[in-house]
Specification:
Length: about 270
């Protein structure tokens, strides 16, 4: 994973080897991930939960927690030194008080992601409502659950919800589309997924058709891949699902606009008679 992916896409409690080497002009240089995260200074576009809109976020410098020695009632005669923690913040371009925070713990030779606020779930849940025009309410909830599971590192479970959403879009398209000599729904449901997609191919969003093999990837993730492998591929899978949803939404919005214009034209025609 890149430094950017470790900060934004990794799940809570995911562990990384802290010592890394980077090729700089043919010479391998030694670094630590916590240093590279602290020095990360790219601007990123993200959803601001307080603005309720996508914004450009700029990074603060990485801040390490105080590693002074502390006392504890279980060890009254011992001063304990905490492990160092790194906190990385990003600030909204529209309001300096709107920020996103990430925390990492240096645990011996490993770096552990220990905090994220707002959570991935909080950062995306309000954006799902726009899909109400193409998804039933229950599947809007399932999108939210997939995001929540992802934020806790349950990638296999997130794969399951994304596969259910994929299946729902296929069945919904079949049920709502006027197809010449259309077969019965029971017969359609018995088809293999690739045959279901082929049957309604011309009525699906182009991006959905171009990446229809994602269903096989989702199924393999649920039944064969490890949690770590699913986590590695989750961002790609999620991107394809959401691009397809966006395209389906655009098609639906165009249909609604046409219906609205048609109503206005009919009214105008009636008024002019």
């Amino acid at each position: 994973m890149t430094i950017k992916e470790i900060i934004f896409d990794s799940s809570l409690y995911q562990r990384f080897k802290n010592d890394v080497q980077i090729d700089e002009d043919g010479v391998l240089m030694d670094y630590t991930l916590d240093y590279l995260i602290g020095e990360f200074n790219e601007r990123v576009e993200m959803y601001c939960t307080e603005c309720d809109s996508r914004r450009i976020f700029a990074t603060d410098e990485g801040v390490y927690s105080d590693t002074r020695r502390v006392s504890n009632i279980h060890f009254p005669h011992t001063q304990i030194k905490n492990k160092p923690s790194l906190f990385k913040s990003f600030r909204c371009s529209q309001n300096e008080h709107h920020s996103i925070h990430y925390g990492f713990l240096v645990d011996n030779t490993e770096l552990v992601k220990i905090s994220e606020y707002p959570s991935k779930y909080d950062s995306v849940k309000d954006t799902f409502n726009k899909f109400k025009k193409i998804l039933d309410k229950s599947f809007i909830t399932e999108l939210s659950k997939a995001a929540q599971l992802e934020s806790f590192g349950y990638a296999i479970a997130a794969f399951l919800y994304y596969r259910r959403i994929f299946e729902h879009l296929i069945i919904k398209t079949f049920k709502e589309t006027e197809i010449p000599h259309k077969i019965a729904e029971d017969e359609y449901r018995k088809k293999r997924m690739e045959d279901k997609i082929s049957y309604i191919k011309e009525y699906l969003p182009a991006y959905f058709n171009d990446n229809s093999h994602i269903y096989g990837i989702l199924s393999k993730g649920i039944h064969e891949l490890s949690e770590e492998e699913c986590q590695k591929h989750l961002s790609i899978v999620k991107t394809i699902i959401f691009f397809s949803l966006e395209e389906a939404l655009e098609i639906r919005n165009n249909e609604l606009r046409k219906e609205e214009f048609s109503k206005k034209l009919n009214k105008l025609n009636t008024d002019l008679k």
